[in-house]
Specification:
single chain, alpha/beta, Nitrilase/N-carbamoyl-D-aminoacid amidohydrolase, 2 domains, six-stranded mixed β-sheet, 16 helices, 12 strands, 45% helix, globular
């Protein structure tokens, strides 16, 4: 195949440019575009680039691996730059103060994340062969890199490759069996198989595996969605409020009362005809525009607004301390407020956003005049633990604040003892960009993995109710102001425990690694 040959022979800046372009193209497989077919181009191109990424025979083994690492790094830089450029939107909310940091956020974060994909291709090149073994090697390398991205340096598994293979509920169900570990590895394996058409070695095997994997993925999804859920033993009527507050006004003292009145008005309106009065009302992250310690009258207003038996879960900034010997500590929290206007429970955000909610290495950065970049008027402290909140109907809701919901293992820990997942966020920082849609997709997959309904409240979207199999029951568009009322049946549970999903994913990784290693050794013996 002449096209593959030209790719293999590329070198220098041309190789880097093609790798960068292939990575950037792959982002079209992520939300909101969901054009996963592009990955059947991007990953074969990456395979062919790695076929030609060899050092000089006289070089040491480490120097011989540098071209493979560089190829993966450029692929990753293109992927993350095209997929995360919207992060810079947050710095433009207060452009006078933070526009200077725009290049560091837009370019610096992709620059750093690209090292994971450089590591992936380096590992793959160690197990490389000239046949289907190199496809297994690349899948193993990416699976390992995506797993590390979940927790290294506080973790940031945004836009993991596996999400590209799950654009609709039919294709999301496999995550309930093999988790994101297995989905990331198998997605890369599947996307890379067309590379076999170039040399035609193991082409028939590749076609057979392609058919089997696609049939299993689609067939299991169809079976899972067609199988009726367990009869609901309990249910809850909910109202999700999306206030669409302009962030330029969010912490403006002169408009706080107006913002609070908007929230009260949307929350207290009568339900539409045929709808029951909500038992649970959900507000977004940091939706309350002041501290309750400064405005105790706000709790009284909430008690007056809530009907008998109703509970409000609201995102707030929670203050603690403030003694003469120590300053106040602030937490990004959710609180449960009953119909008497009393706070009956609170959960603090445990996994904070670096530079957004706290400043890592604060003493060092502050010497250079660098402070917190976004998210509010203060730095937040991390909470110590998370627990489900009791809500009406004897149910337990596991709350996750903002991007905590993108971490599969973190969600799974609390979901085991909960009846539904609650995600509150304020994606207004990123406007109507791909960011809010990508965030929502990852939350959607958490519902599938854990077999629980998802209630999601976002300041400006995407607010939604998602059932336990990832289907959207109702949603509000980005920047819309209003509420969703829905009757949510509670039934079912995770198809497999989180530990078993992890084991299944790791077994897939092991099979890929063994296949790549075996074929690599066989090729070496054949050459020698």
């Amino acid at each position: 195949m002449r096209f593959a040959g030209r790719i293999i022979l590329l070198w220098g800046w041309r190789r880097a440019l093609v790798a960068f372009a292939a990575g950037a193209l792959a982002v079209l497989a992520q939300a909101p575009y969901d054009f996963f077919a592009v990955c059947f181009v991007s990953f074969p191109v990456l395979v062919w680039l790695l076929d030609g990424a060899t050092g000089e025979a006289s070089d040491g083994w480490l120097r011989r691996l540098r071209p493979a690492f560089a190829t993966g790094w450029w692929f990753g830089f293109g992927y993350f730059l095209a997929g995360l450029w919207w992060i810079g939107q947050a710095l433009l909310v207060e452009a006078d103060s933070f526009a200077w940091a725009l290049p560091f956020a837009v370019v610096g974060i992709p620059f750093a994340l690209a090292f994971f994909y450089g590591f992936a291709t380096l590992v793959a090149r160690l197990l490389w062969s000239s046949d289907i073994g190199r496809i297994a090697a690349l899948a193993f390398g990416f699976g390992l890199a995506e797993w590390l991205r979940d927790f290294l340096f506080t973790g940031f598994p945004w836009n993991a490759v596996g999400y590209a293979a799950m654009p609709i509920p039919l294709l999301m169900q496999s995550a309930s069996v093999i988790g994101m570990i297995g989905m990331n590895a198998l997605a890369v394996f599947l996307f890379s198989l067309p590379a076999l058409v170039a040399a035609r070695r193991h082409l028939r095997l590749g076609i057979a595996l392609f058919i089997v994997l696609v049939a299993a993925h689609v067939g299991f999804g169809y079976f899972r969605l067609a199988t009726p859920a367990e009869p609901a033993t309990r249910s809850i009527d909910v109202r999700i409020v999306q206030p669409a507050v302009d962030l330029s006004e969010k912490w403006d003292a002169s408009v706080r009362d107006r913002i609070f009145a908007t929230l009260l008005g949307i929350s207290g309106k009568a339900p539409e005809e045929g709808r029951a009065k909500p038992q649970l009302i959900l507000w977004p992250e940091t939706s309350v525009p002041f501290l309750f310690t400064e405005r105790p009258d706000a709790l009284t207003a909430l008690g007056d607004m809530l009907a008998d038996g109703q509970v409000l879960i609201a995102g707030v900034v929670r203050e603690e301390g403030g003694s003469a010997s120590a300053g106040s500590r602030y937490y990004n929290s959710v609180v449960a407020i009953d119909d008497k206007g009393e706070i009956v429970d609170a959960v603090d955000k445990v996994h904070l956003v670096p530079f957004g909610e706290y400043l890592p290495f604060a003493d060092l950065f502050e010497r250079f005049g660098i402070g917190q970049l976004v998210a509010g008027p203060m730095n937040f402290a991390a909470g110590n633990e998370r627990h489900p909140i009791n809500v009406p109907g004897g149910l337990r809701a596991a709350p996750f604040i903002c991007y905590e919901v993108i971490f599969p293992d973190l969600v799974a820990v609390d979901a085991r003892s909960a009846d539904l997942i609650v995600n509150v966020t304020n994606d207004a920082w990123f406007g109507d960009t791909p960011g809010p849609y990508q965030h929502f997709r990852q939350a959607q997959i958490r519902a599938v993995e854990n077999g629980l309904p998802l209630l999601r409240a976002a300041n400006n979207g995407v607010s939604a109710i998602v059932d336990s199999r990832g289907r959207i029951v109702d949603a509000l568009a980005v920047d819309a102001r209003g509420a969703i009322d829905a009757h949510v049946p509670i039934s079912g549970h995770a198809l497999l425990p989180a530990d078993q999903r992890r084991i299944n994913g790791l077994l897939i990784m092991l099979v890929l690694a063994l296949a790549a290693f075996t074929l690599n050794v066989r090729q070496r013996l054949r050459v020698n």
